[in-house]
Amino acid sequence: MAAPSWEYAPAPESAALANLKPAYRPFVDGEFVDGGGEPLKTLNPATEEVLAEVGTASTEDVDRAVAAARRAYEQVWGPMPGAERAKYLFRIARVVAERARELAVLETLDNGKPIRESRDVDVPTASAHLFHHAGWADKLGYAGLGPDPRPVGVVGSVIPWNFPLLMAAWKIGPALACGNTIVLKPAETTPLTALVLAEIAADAGLPPGVLNVLPGAGDVGAAVVGHDGLDKVAFTGSTDVGKEIQRRLAGTGRRLTLELGGKAANIVYDDAPLDQAVDGVVDGIFFNQGHVCCAGSRLLVQESIEQEFMELLHARIETLRVGDPLDKNTDVGAINSRPQLDKIVDLAAAGDAEAPGAGPAPARCPNAASSSRPPCSPAWSRPCAWRARRSSARCSPC
User: Fold this and answer.
1) Each residue's pLDDT expressed in tens, for the chain with a length of 398 residues
2) 15-260, what's its fold?
């Protein structure tokens, strides 16, 4: 009698739930407009198929968005009582929750992350974040900001591609709750959920100019953060770009918040419960394909348990299911873009060179043969780990 197979059956979510449109446009002063920039095509990282054409902003569009945000701040949103601002944020948060399944599928299609992460983490957390700040809008005097906190004004925000909707909520929620208006620039490769969030805000009756969303590449982001009409810039992204923004804003009087990339170490001592520690390490580095600013990409293990721990870790890594992001059983989805995959492959090659034989090089095709969709694409990297004893190693230790 043949041994039973314990492979998961395919459990794909329907892509049709995303309600994809053939084209999306920038959102300026309360309406979707034709952007003056060169349109871009946003891709499904798992298949490299075009999802939609997205209009991008020009310098003139940035000027119009900032002017609209300034007008809305001075005439409507800034003077509005916090309890009234809260009503709009509560409406937006509620609709995000109501459209959670649609937003989760759209996020997975545009970003490549597993549907269970979009469904169980990104979208509900985005909604919860908006609900949270809606509740604070009329209680700012108790937030530890002084007896009579005042809004800053017009905020320019640039967000990355790893948590597109959640990052948008992180920027929009507190800014609007405090009486500020915002010009948001989503990442070039993942603009869709931010634009749907703008649609939700418009449907919720948010006054024109309070929220503006400008898709585009790095030149649009540079035009936003460098605009003289802003009172504050909030940027999440790479350290190098953050340093450039810091230099650019130095001496201007404009406020700046930077959330930049960093690497965190997992530290495991010999008295740790090793199975639990292994799961913590795996969650810390492979969640969202490792696309997390504070991912636990380094591992420091007490020498007396190193051999046992690494054997357990490699065995656990082998069980991760890499494959179709829309399959509910997938653990590791598609890398967001080809440049990101190329960077991973380069680092993997460095790991092999610096610690030969210590860990498998990443494969470009997933090992989830049970997926109902064609599994091979340039978009995957198999999870792996290396041992390295030199702190200078590029992949040391993983």
Assistant:
1) 677 777 788 888 999 999 999 999 999 999 999 999 999 999 999 888 999 999 999 999 999 999 999 999 999 999 999 999 999 999 999 999 999 999 999 999 999 999 999 999 999 999 999 999 999 999 999 998 888 899 999 999 999 998 999 999 999 999 999 999 999 999 999 999 999 999 999 999 999 999 999 999 999 999 999 999 999 999 999 899 999 999 999 999 999 999 987 778 899 999 999 999 999 999 888 887 777 777 888 889 999 999 999 999 999 988 888 889 999 999 888 887 677 777 777 776 776 676 654 554 444 444 443 344 444 445 656 666 666 555 554 543 33
2) Aldehyde Dehydrogenase; Chain A, domain 1 (3.40.605)
Domain 262-398 fold is: Aldehyde Dehydrogenase; Chain A, domain 2 (3.40.309)
Any catalytic annotation for residue 293? yes
Distance CA 157, CA 232 (A): 9
User: Are the beta carbons of 255 and 292 closer than 8 angstroms?
Assistant: no
Catalytic residue among 102, 293, 306, 365: 293
The single residue listed with the structure tokens 């989760």 is 104
Nearest to 223 by CA among 28, 74, 66: 66
Look up 259 and say whether it is catalytic: yes
* 3-state SS class at 323: coil
The residue annotated as part of the active site, out of 53, 102, 244, 259, is: 259
